[in-house]
Q: What sequence folds into this?
């Protein structure tokens, strides 16, 4: 009799976990309407209409929030608009859905380099190398981006940032 509450709690926990796992949809079960909207967005992106592509991708995510392709496409658009921080966030969303997505890891690494976070980008490169058994284009592209380094504007902005506790050099004591 003493073990009945413990056994009941364990059974309830197992039932809750199995229900959550069953509720997750693999990529093959993404709502077809969402997939169709992503294709329309890609066409708009190829045509150079980034705003319309962005709007369509947000609609695709409203239809099916588990559409990883929509998150990756939003990240690509953010990078094209010069918004690496936003791209990193969208790639993170895609990686939460599938942590072993090599394209998302490489894209996030590239955005991290654009932001100036080369150390984090190297961590992504290590993950990509671990996941790619043979050579893959994502690995080569990310390695090239890391070797190239962040844009000059990011480097000069980082050089102007004072160390914690240090006053900026442009300020004069009063």
A:
């Amino acid at each position: 009799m003493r073990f009945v509450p413990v056994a009941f709690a364990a059974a309830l926990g197992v039932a809750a976990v199995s229900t959550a796992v069953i509720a997750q949809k693999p990529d093959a079960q993404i709502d077809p309407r969402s997939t169709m909207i992503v294709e329309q967005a890609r066409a708009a992106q190829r045509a150079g209409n980034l705003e319309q592509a962005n709007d369509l991708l947000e609609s695709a995510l409203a239809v099916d929030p588990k559409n990883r392709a929509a998150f990756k496409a939003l990240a690509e658009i953010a990078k094209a608009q010069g918004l690496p921080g936003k791209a990193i966030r969208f790639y993170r969303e895609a990686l939460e859905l599938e942590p072993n997505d090599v394209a998302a890891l490489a894209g996030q690494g590239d955005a991290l380099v654009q932001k100036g976070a080369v150390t984090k980008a190297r961590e992504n490169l290590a993950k990509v190398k671990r996941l790619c058994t043979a050579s893959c284009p994502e690995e080569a592209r990310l390695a090239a981006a890391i070797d190239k380094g962040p844009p000059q504007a990011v480097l000069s902005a980082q050089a102007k940032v004072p160390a914690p506790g240090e006053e900026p050099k442009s300020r004069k004591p009063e």
Q: What stands out?
A: The radius of gyration is 22 Å. The CA atoms of residues 34 and 60 lie 4 Å apart. Residues 18-23 have pLDDT under 50 and may be disordered.
